[in-house]
Amino acid sequence: MQNLIRTAVLVLAASLIAGCSYFGVYKRDLVQGNLITQDMVSQLHTGMSRAQVVQVMGTPLMEAPFSSDQWDYVFYLDKAYGGTVEKRVTLTFANDQVVDIQKSGDMDSDVELDQDSGPGPAVEGAGEGAAVPQVGPTGL
């Protein structure tokens, strides 16, 4: 009887372990850094002030640690069931104006980010074309 129980437990454990590898693991897209679009990059030019750059690109992801004359905007997307997308824009300043713009990565392709698949439950009834429920005091 004990051998039958041991065999059943062993078969059950083996089937559970094999089942995990059979179905695969759920993956999500991993997005890191500043979103960089072709439209944003096309608006950059030498002679822009820091405030103008912030209006176009937002705050930089990184500033050079020993000098505030270099701003780096980095975007990295690791697609769950695909490749990766990497973009980088490095701006160099002199007298608070852009003097050099260096780009790397595929700036021509824009990345579509799915906002509805974020963590947590979706808003009920907020599908495409649905009105977002209003929160707050109602008229009396």
List the helices and strands and how they pair.
Blueprint (H helix, E strand, L loop, with lengths): L1 H22 L6 E4 L4 H6 L6 H8 L4 E2 L6 E9 L5 E11 L2 E9 L35
Antiparallel strand pairs: 1-3, 2-3, 3-4, 4-5
Membrane topology: Lipid-anchor
InterPro entries: BamE (IPR026592), BamE-like (IPR037873), BamE_dom (IPR007450)
Protein name: Outer membrane protein assembly factor BamE
Question: Can I get a quick summary?
Answer:
The protein is of the alpha+beta class. It has 3 helices and 5 strands; from the N terminus they run αβααββββ. The chain has a domain at 26-106: Beta-lactamase Inhibitory Protein, Chain:B, domain 1 (2-Layer Sandwich), CATH 3.30.1450.
Can you walk through the features of this model?
The chain is of the alpha+beta class and 140 residues long. It has a domain at 26-106: Beta-lactamase Inhibitory Protein, Chain:B, domain 1, CATH 3.30.1450. It has 3 helices and 5 strands. It has helices spanning 2-23, 38-43, 50-57, and strands spanning 30-33, 62-63, 70-78, 84-94, 97-105. Strands 1, 2, 3, 4 and 5 form a 5-stranded antiparallel sheet that branches. A hairpin with a 6-residue loop joins strand 2 (62-63) and strand 3. The relative contact order is 0.15. Its main location: membrane.
